[in-house]
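Notes from the pairing session

We agreed to fold both candidates in a single pass and log them together. This is the raw record for the first candidate, unedited. Please don't reformat it; downstream parsing expects exactly this layout.

Candidate A
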Amino acid sequence: MSEKLSGVLGWVGIALVLGALVVRFTMPEQQEVWYWSAVAGIVVVGLYILTQWRDIFGAFGPRRMKYGALATSSVILGLGILTAVNFVLARQNKRWDLTAAGQYSLSDQTVQVLRSLDAPIRIIVFGRDIEFPAYQDRLAEYEYTSPQVSLEFVDVDKEPLQARQYEIQSYGTIIFEYEGRVERVVSDTEQELTNALIKVIEGEEVKAYFVQGHGERSPEGTDRNGLSALSEALRLDNFSVDTIVLAQSDSVPADASVIIIAGPTIDYLPSEIELLRDYLDAGGKALFLLDPPNDAETDQAALLSLAAEWGISVGNDVVIDSSGVGQLLGADVTVPVAASYPPHPITENFGLLTAFPLARSVRPESVGTTGRVAQTFIETSERSWAETDMAELASGEVAPGGDDTEGPISIGVALSVPVERDVPSGNPAAEAETADEDEPTLETRVAVIGDSDFATNGVLGIQGNRDLALNTIDWLAQQENLISIRPRQPEDRRITLTADQQWRVQVMTLFMIPGVVIGLGLLTWYRRR
C-alpha cells in the first residue's frame, strides 16, 4: 500500500511541475498559481525520492549503469541536434500565416511601403509593460519585413522623461520617427499604423478636390450613393479631401494634387471647361467618373470633348456582361465585371474582381502628333458588349447586334504626358532647381472610367473596387509607392446557430456520442462474459 502511495506521489509531483510550466507560458499574469504549483510539485517529488531512495541507488548497478550511460548519451545527442537546428533556424527566420484571411500577415501596401524605405525609421510604443505583448504581435511584422525598422517599447511610468520628450498624453501611443519627422497614433490596427507610416515618410499631405455643382456625388455623402467611404479611405492614404465649385473659382487651387469629377448629371459651362483645360495643360491631374447618360440631351458633351483632346473617347452606350460572373456578386448583366487587367502601373499585381453598375465604354484614341497616347487599364470579359440601342435596353431583353461593339470592352483609360516647367530666363537658381534629379517629373495625368457607382458607399466594398479607386487616385497624384492591395478588416469568423441547430448539437454531444461509446462498451463486456 505504501509503495503504491509513494508511486502516486511521484506522478502528482511531476503533474504539478508540468502544470506550473504550462500556466507560466500561457498565462504569465497568474504568477501566484504557477509559482506555488511549482513549489508544491518540487516538494512532492522530493518526498517521493525520500521514500524510494533504495530503489534509486539500486538503479546505479553495473549493468544498469551501462544502459543508463547509453540512454544518457542518446539524450545528449538528441539535445545537441535540436540545439543545432534551432541555432540555424533562428538565423533563417521564416513565418507562415495559415489563417484563411491572412490575419497575421501585413497587407501588400504595408509591405511595399516598408520595402521602399531608404533610411532608418524608429517605432516607439509608449505604454505599460502589461500592454506590450498586444503591440508586439503586430509591430514585430513591421520589423521583420524591413531591416530599416527598429522597434522599442517604453514604459511611461518607469521612464517619464522620455515620454515627456515625445509629448505623450495617453498610454498606447505609438511614435513613428523618420528623418527628423514624428507622427503619433493611438491604435494597434494595421490601417492606422500604416497611415501614420505613410504620413511620416511623405512629410506632408496631398490634397484631392471633388468638383461640385453639376449633380456630382458628394465626398461627404453617407447614403448608398455618397462617397464618404472613399473619402475616408483617401485620408488613410495621406490625402486631405476638399470640394470646389469651378463656377465660383478663378482657377483650380494651386495645392490640388488631383481633382475628381464623380458622376455629373449636367454638362459643364464653357468657363469651367477652360479652367480644367488650363489646369491640365500646366501639369494637373484629373479623374473623370462618367456614367452613361439617361438620354442624349443629358450627356456631358463639353466634358467628353475635353476628354477627347487628351486621346480618350467616351462612348454613348451601356456595357452588358453576359459572362455570369456578376451573378456571383448578386448582380445582373448590366453590371460588368473585370477580372483581368491590361498592363498598367495602376493595375500592376492587381488580381481582384471589380464591378461597375451601369458602365459606359471608354477607349483610347490617337490625337495627331501631340504625344497624347492613352492606355486601357480596365476592360470587361469577352462575353460582353457595348449596347447602343437604349430602347432595347429599356425593354429588358438585350442581345448583341447592329452597331454594338463586342467584348472585351474598355471602360477605364489613363494617360500621362510630360510637361515642361516654365523657367524664367536668366534665373540660374530656378534653372538649377529644374535640373535637380530629385525633383519629380512634371506630368499631366488623366484617368477616365465609364462609371461612378463603383466608388460609392454601396458598391465600394465589393472585392477590389476600393483598391482600384485608390490605386487610380494614387497614380494620378504620383504616389506610386502606395499602389497595392490595402489592409483588410479582420473577418468575423463566428458561427451563428439557430435554436434548432443548437438543440441538435446539444443532443448529439450530451446523449448520442456518449450513448454510442457506452453502448459499444456494454457490447464488448457482454461478448467477453
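Candidate B (folded immediately after A)
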Amino acid sequence: MTDMVRFSAKAMALTAGCVLSLQLSSGQVTNVVRDDERQLREWIKALGSDEFGGRKPMTEYEDLSINYLAGQLEGLGLEPAFGGSWFQPFGMVAVTAKPVSNALTAKGKKKVTLRYPDDLIVWTARATDMVEMKDAEYVFCGFGINAPEYGWNDYEGIDVKGKIVITMVNDPGYYDANLFRGRNMTYYGRWLYKFEEAKRQGAAGCMVLHNTEAASYGWHVCVNGHLEDNLALYDPETRNADELGMKGWLHEDGARKLFEAAGMDMDAALAAAKRPGFRSFSLKVKGDVKLAVSYDIQQTRNVAGMLRGATRPDEAIVLSAHWDHLGIGTPDESGDAIYNGAADNGTGMAGVLLAARKFTELPERPDRSIIFLFPSSEESGLFGSEYYCSHPAIPMEKTVANLNFESMGPAELTEDVVILGGGETFLDNYYVAAAAAQGRYIFFDDDNSDGWFFRSDHYNFVKKGVPAVVVENGLHPLDPSKPNIYPMESWYHKPCDEYRDDWDLTGTLANVNLQFSVGLSLANAKAY
C-alpha cells in the first residue's frame, strides 16, 4: 500500500525554487525561470550531441565529456574536489570468460553436462588467463541470503568455502507477502547481492538460478548482458584474485540437470527454500571448472567540484549525476548508431550544473560543503559511484546526504513528485517541505518489485549509510491537455534519446529546483 502526503497549495506552475520566489518580484522570477531553462537546454544539447559520441567510458569520447564538465565547474567558480584535480581516476577490467569446450561437466549419482550459453552463462572479475577449480562441489543455498533483521540466514549450518553456491533470484517476499517486504523487493533480492554474500561466505563461485517472473526479465537478457566485456573495478595489487572465481546465471533447465544428477527433486527443494526454517544442503555433485579468460585493463574517471562550506567545511552534501552513457552501438531502423543519452543522463548532469550555479550565486556560502559529483560507469554497474564511496572527497561519515539526479526529463510540470525509498530517513520531511513550497505534494511510492531503487548511483551511498532517495516526475500533470510526448519508454537506451527543442522541461526545472532547495536546507540545518 502506498502512502501519500498532500498539501492544499495553490495550483500554480511554480518552476522557480522557493528561495528565489521569496526574494524576487513576479517579473524577476519569470526572467530567472526563462534564463534557467535556457541554460538547462544549452547543457543538455551539448552533452547529448553527436560530438560526444554517446559518452562511453574508456573510449576517445571520455576526455571530451569529462573535460567539458570540468570546464563548466571551473567556470562556475568551484574548486576541484580531488586534491587539486577535477578528476578521480580508477581502474576497470573488462573480462570475457567461457568454459573450455563450451561446457561444464559434473558428477553425482550420474554425470551431467551443462552447455554454454543454453544452460548457464558465466564470467569472472579476475584478471587472469584461466580460472580453474578442481573437483568443485555444488551446494544449494536457497535465496543465498543472510538477513538478521528478517530472521533469515540461508548460510546457517553449511560451510560453502571453496564450493559453488546456487541461489534463487529475488527474496522470499516475492512468494509470501508476510516475509521480508512482500513484493517490494529488498536489496537481498538483487543478483549482485547474491555474489557479494557468497564471497563473504568464502565460496569459490556463485550461480543465480534464473526465473523469468522473479527476475522480471528473460534468459536472453542474462546471456546478452554477460557474453563479453563484463566490467568490474580493478585492484592492481591483487588483480582481483580475491573475487569469486566464477559468477553466473543458471538456466532452470541447467539447474534441473544438476538436481537430477544428485537424485534430488528440484521442485521440492525450491518450494522448501521459500519457507522459513529452510536448511541449505550439498547436492553431492562435483566437477572441474575451467574457464578460458580474456581481459582488458583500462582507466576511467569520475569528475567533481566543490563549494567549500562556510562554517562546517568538513561535512558535505553530495549532488550527483552520472556522466556516462552507451556510446556507439547497434544502429536503429534509421541507421543512427549513436546512443546520445540526452535524457539519460544529459538532463541529470545539466540539473547538477544548474544547481551548482544557484549555490554559487547565493549571497552567502552554505554552512556545509557541497560536492557536485559526476560518476563514470553507472550504466555498466554503478562502478564510478562505488569507487567514490570507497574513496570520497569528504568521508562518508561526514556526508549528510546524496541527492542524485537521474534522467530528469523531458518532463512536464506535475502536481506531485514521486519518491522511491521514502520512510527510511530524515530526508522525507525535507522533500515534503520543499514540494509544498512549490505548491506540489510528495507521493511516496513503495512499489519496488522491479528493484528500481537499487539501480542508480545513489544506492552506493545508501550501502555506506548515507541517506538518499529516488526522485521521479509526478503522475498528475498540472495541465492534462499537454501530456509528455516523449515518455521514457520511447527513448530509454535507444539512439533516439536526443535533445529536441520541443521538449517540455517545466517539470524537469521544477524538480531541479526541488533538489536545490532540499540541498540548501540540509547544508544549513543545525541538526538533521
